[in-house]
């Protein structure tokens, strides 16, 4: 089906976000805004309780406003406006080079924006004085390449950041780490080294590592693109479970079937702009814009 052989790029863009090894506690208060996965089928009927509406109105975890990003004279993002609601899963698709990774990286300040704003729970994270460790604790990221530390065990990889950042005691981190490893199906690999794991297992460890910081939002940048085909499914299953658990997520993916299945909304980007977005079934079946049609005709 999709023989997307253009996996040439990106290898250089895989900084690790194991949230900086500063200190800082950043008591990321658990915002219990109730899960408002609005199904969109409630079109303003008057019997919706008022409180629910308020939750929907204030439901955006992420708001991107007129975001521009240039590298030298290369204008990569040319005015992106985007929201991600609480508990929402968005899939970002589009041709290679369209700025998908750059956009994700701007959402947790792995890149400085050139202009525009990114609000996370109302806080503008593009401002000078923001605490980067705190941002990256709240927004976990998983890359195509997992960047595990080879000399550490799986459990040590998972517990490193929360312990270094003073978020959890060693004992608590180990307990939480084991819990997360079992959640990604790797309980029995706690003492293994990354070299003893398959690609799919390594990526599941990387997901557990990101979850160890208790993020409120998770970003996935082509998390399955570097995997052998037979390992894609096990990683998608972990992402699917996370989506079901109500995690707010943005997925950049080449897996169109997965995007259609898991995402609440699909965003099609090309040449640094959001060309079209909408309900996955609708967008895949009935793309309105010429560039979307053209792209989908190549990948579906
Ligand atoms: N750190 C960087 N320095 C210079 N150019 C970059 C950097 N990161 C990305 N780019 C450029 O930005 C453009 C978009 O890249 P990227 O966001 O990786 O696209 P995508 O993820 O959609 O394939 C490309 O032209 C790429 O070369
Ligand atoms: Mg990319």
UniProtKB/TrEMBL annotation:
Boundaries of every ABC transporter domain copy: 62-296
Localization (cell): Cell membrane
Cited Pfam families: ABC_tran
GO cellular component, one term: plasma membrane
Region (Disordered) location: 1-50
Compositionally biased residues, Basic and acidic residues: 1-10
Keywords: ATP-binding, Cell membrane, Membrane, Nucleotide-binding, Transport
One example GO MF annotation: ATP binding
Segments of skewed composition (Low complexity): 11-21
Family recorded in the similarity comment: Belongs to the ABC transporter superfamily.
Protein name as annotated: ABC-type polar-amino-acid transporter
